[in-house]
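job 3f2a | input accepted
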Amino acid sequence: NEIKVFVLPIEKEHSKESVKQVLLSILKTEEGKNLSDQKLSDKLAEKGINIARRTVAKYRKELNFDSSYDR
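job 3f2a | predicted structure (71 res):
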């Protein structure tokens, strides 16, 4: 009998600063100015960065951007 080992790819880790840089680039676009935190989270997910809406809100505040309602 042969033992088969399955190796699953490990998701690439993203540092807080690298995620904030991607978020900043999205927020600086015309479209990004009108996106809610959930929509920003969705945009990041499209780029392979899966973080919660509340984390997006935290990083957005750290980047000195108001909520979409106030932008």
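job 3f2a | The two ends are 64 Å apart (CA to CA).
job 3f2a | closed
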